[in-house]
Design goal:
4 copies of one chain form a homotetramer. Chain A is of the alpha/beta class. Chain A folds into 2 domains: 166 residues, NAD(P)-binding Rossmann-like Domain (Rossmann fold), CATH 3.40.50; 177 residues, Dihydrodipicolinate Reductase, domain 2 (2-Layer Sandwich), CATH 3.30.360. In chain A, 27% of the residues lie in helices and 22% in strands. The first copy, chain A, contains 11 helices and 14 strands. The radius of gyration of chain A is 20 Å and the shape is globular. Chains A and B meet through strand 7, strand 10, strand 11 and helix 10 of A and strand 7, strand 10, strand 11 and helix 10 of B.
């Protein structure tokens, strides 16, 4: 058996950090060897650093309890311990930009959960099934920024994963999409911890999530865009309008989508066939976190539902249902994914697996 | 003080029937003098008939406890007791069509909560602020059906009220709407009792409500349509596409709306002004259940919310918020109304008040 | 009509402060003339001070919107504006002790929602139906503390009101209680705002509320105690054991109670009769917030429930149900009250009404 | 590898039946070879029989989809297909008594989830860690009822498992318990499907579960009792008083317990030690469903919680926390278990494993 690749988690004590540890505890390729967080946690054993704020349902994995947490800002401490860091730090945008760049400049591959770098024109926003070729920017990113070995890759906002795979599958099959109106019903875990107050989510839903609609509209265009001269040029042929709601659900984002094709539209049966047969590079490479199949189509009228479908494919698959005609556009459907797995830590781990499979981790 | 008009409730023991009694208990114009339900309740005092299944938060109004419930099918029992009946019976479509017609043929004004007659081309589907002139069909309805005095008026489905007043206000102001995509987050009370199972709504939402999307798309066109030769001709210039979700909220339907105007579009400030200044016949006639103002615009990002806004205007107002540009259409906004008040019993009471004010109740 | 007494609210911008304003907006005896909060709110109009954090379902009462908020710590600002202040400040215990004492030493009657003074041996913890005679301590409190006119009265913890009236009614009827085991299911509003995180209360309950069990066990003994030589001597003849749980309910605390009488026990029918006929000084004095009757007994197996019973008596009554034999003690029953009305602001307003009726407000 | 024992599930289409199939789909000892349900399902493939009413989060196990469902009442159909049936039929008590007896008289071991036979004096109510010796009644049961090979064993009500292991561990360690007051917060799945209405469990809890308190008080005495002359004599030395509440939680019953020892009481540290070190026959026999350890003690103040602790030990362990002194009895603690696993199907499977390990399955 090959030796595992050593990885680190910065922002390891926060909720997304905890999800990373939960998901990496038995990873076949990666071994967590470096945990870092804010100075207040530095020097403590991980189990002490998260005492009273471990939010996962599973216990802290035994193997991580005694790792001494480092100060994430002290990049020197990571030297020699790992070659890739997952970034889940919770700081302001400027601080994240600097910190992630510092790790990269010190030779680390950085796979980030944060939105800070998503707008950087030389940083890929990756969904491994959709735009793996965006990794080709890495040499240019390194050259431009003067980094010899490190680089930065980020994952998109968790709100868009419920529909990006389904619409990409259609685009790839030759049916480009021109317009899309989507309304999401998003789970609480997407807001981090503590997130919204319980008293505001009993007998209630919230019609607003700060910044979410903008991200939902902009990020898909970058993901579907092209790399030209070391920069990503967004695909402006698709226009998305998003309404983002918060609902009293722990995990699992639902998206109600109405789509208009740019040209001819496929029959409904063809759409379902495209989804059922969709497969992509992560599946071909047999990446450990790649769900097979990546898209599940449910025939029942009342599916997908977050409670019942979020864990499909170990939380990495996207479940789709209710494909039907739309009075205004061509079709409507419902998409659902697990926002803290596929939409956050799990999606980043899949990206890291892709990096490794493509030989980008040295 | 004028003597109150005597009214009846058929289907008085069901949940909507209970809402009628709750809302009519202190009505300034109407006095409930006839209660009818299925044969199994007939002959019992109302308090006994609903024992163990009174679902309102308030106690059974004292004045109704001892009224003896009649068999709704025995229309003769209503004779002389009231001149208008609110219909909230829960039966199959054909049975409702017959029963409501029988009341009408016996001289009763019937204001119905049911969907059965909504498709009848000579029966008005009324939102009193929008299409009061549709009552002009009544003489034609009576003539065609051979009824001397009785008639049938119905209220629309509860899913559409969150946006019908806001879009009608714009249409009336000279801005017709061509297309609309709406996603609703609908409360449990809209499903009647018992409605969905609790275990399906904890940590969950449901992406489907049987028949609701069709009603949401068809009924607005009839309401906005014209009466021609004794028949309603739907307004086919507006196309609506609806996604209807069930969420764990007791009362209050939220609608996320994207709209495209047919012609020129107003500025956002003008839209808000139109909504804030909107008023209509029920307000001018000072009908007791007419909310003043009928539309409330909230400036906060995170409003309207069902828990906080459903009771506005005693549950009869529509609260709107988050007007903003749409990437695909012209604008987006959120609308909210109380589905068992404005959207059901309260809306029908407002219709009955309009009938009385227009001298249609004999 | 008599002129209203001017009152103030300190801590007016917090959630309990907001409840005070909601409940006092149409009070027949009191007029709010002074609002104070932390320095960060001082100088702002009330509507600006609570912008984005007004948590009541009703809008901010129009009459309070333009009142300029003062710095609660600058007691001089209250001079001449009111003679009583309701204290709902959120500070540490020592700071509250000082601030409330400063208001009292400056001549204000202080009716406090806070726990800080509940342990002070010369400060009455009042439930107006139970221990109005504890107000006799006021002259002694004033003398001891060197206050000429001001004084402090507090209300007990919100967890105990669901059972204190029911068990006091029995005690008063000649059936002293020796032991009681109670498990509460407490609403979220009892935790203030923001309180628990939504993600922790979806598909979950919490078995612990910090400090709540101790308060639930100690405060009843003081309330049932006697005033001797200027100090309250707790009633140690009753022993209470409390389990306090947090549940996903907005308002309304439920208590499952098992009681053992000290001596003979009444028949169950007698217990119910005692509860139904219970009345006390606030009812006799017709205090505006005194519920009539104060205790409601529901015969149905599945009542009381927070959603359906919390608003009984405008949120000031206690609803009791399910009286039955206990295998271990004498009887069991369920009690329920509205924790932010009877258990917090409403309870304090009733106390202030009692102070006024007894001529203690100058 | 030994050949698996063939088992059947009667009532296979209901919610508990579905849990059996979910839990048995990869069982190392048992193979499901017979599925039976009501006549309306008979003759259909299992996947068709449960179409639209499969309530598990996981899909129907592939291997069961095509099994043809038999009419449970036609016992002859089971002949030769299996030697043990798990009974999860939903019928009235008399019908269950007859049907289970008929399976037993036809030579099948019946392990039942139903309450029907719990009161039968020769039928053991089994918690495998507590009273495995109650299986000694089987020869006497067979003799008395004239059964040559079949027999009936039942599992107790799901409300009691949260405290039975913890109190039994103390009793076994030499600390008999005299009195116990328990208040439960029970999950929705305990009510079967559909169970309570969603609208009754949003912003609400229910203070009553029909029949549950009686079962919670009576069944522990039988489980802790002795077998004498072919009959179970309940242990009347323990008195339990139970308050049972329904809360909006999908799975996981919480119990707030106050206990009084009959004699001397252990120190708190000893209690915790007893729980942590508790082990019993199923653990010694390494039964596949036996959790190791069976009791988990959590040190945190706010544990156990249903959302976080129900899946401990694959849903078969009991999690305990908050051991503290009681003002009325000796100690208080919180217990929690997964009601559809340990408390229902999983508990019965553990019983079946014990039967096999003890050679009682022929």
């Amino acid at each position: 058996m090959e030796k595992k690749l050593k990885v680190g988690v910065i922002g390891a004590t926060g909720m997304i950090g905890q999800h990373y540890l939960r998901l990496l505890s038995n990873h076949p390729w990666f071994e967590v060897a470096y945990l870092a967080a804010s100075p207040s946690s530095a020097g403590k054993k991980y189990s002490d650093a998260v005492a009273g704020r471990w939010h996962m349902r599973e216990a802290i994995p035994e193997k991580f309890r005694n790792i001494v947490v480092e100060d994430a800002g002290n990049v020197a401490k990571a030297a020699g311990k790992c070659s890739l860091v997952f970034s889940a730090v919770e700081m302001d945008k400027q601080a994240i930009l600097s910190l992630e760049a510092e790790y990269a400049s010190n030779g680390f591959a950085v796979v980030s959960n944060n939105s800070a770098h998503r707008g950087s024109e030389d940083v890929p926003v990756l969904i491994p099934e959709i735009n793996p070729e965006h990794l080709d920017v890495i040499p240019e990113q390194q050259k431009k920024r003067g980094w010899s070995k490190g680089f930065i890759v980020v994952k998109p906002n968790c709100s868009i994963q419920s529909y990006m795979l389904p619409i990409y599958a259609l685009i790839k099959a030759g049916y480009p999409i021109e317009k899309m109106v989507v309304a999401t019903l998003q789970a609480l875990s997407g807001a981090g911890y503590p997130g919204p107050s319980a008293i505001d989510l009993v007998d209630n839903t919230l019609p607003y999530i700060g910044g979410e609609e903008e991200k939902s509209e902009i990020e898909p265009r970058k993901i579907l865009g092209k790399l030209k001269n070391g920069k990503f040029v967004p695909d402006e042929s698709i226009r998305i309008s998003a309404h983002c709601n918060r609902v009293p659900v722990t995990d699992g984002h639902t998206a109600c989508c109405s789509i208009q094709f740019a040209g001819k539209k496929p029959e409904m049966s063809e759409v379902i066939g495209i989804w059922k047969n969709f497969t992509a590079l992560p599946q071909e490479l047999k990446l450990p976190f790649a769900p097979i199949p990546p898209i599940i189509y449910r025939e029942e009228d009342n599916r997908p539902q977050p409670q019942k479908d979020r864990d499909t494919g170990n939380g990495m698959a996207v479940t789709v249902g209710r494909l039907r005609k739309c009075n205004v556009f061509d079709y409507r459907f419902i998409g659902l994914h697990h926002n803290t797995v596929r939409g956050a830590a799990g999606g980043s781990i899949l990206t890291a697996e892709l990096l490794k499979a493509k030989g980008l981790l040295g």
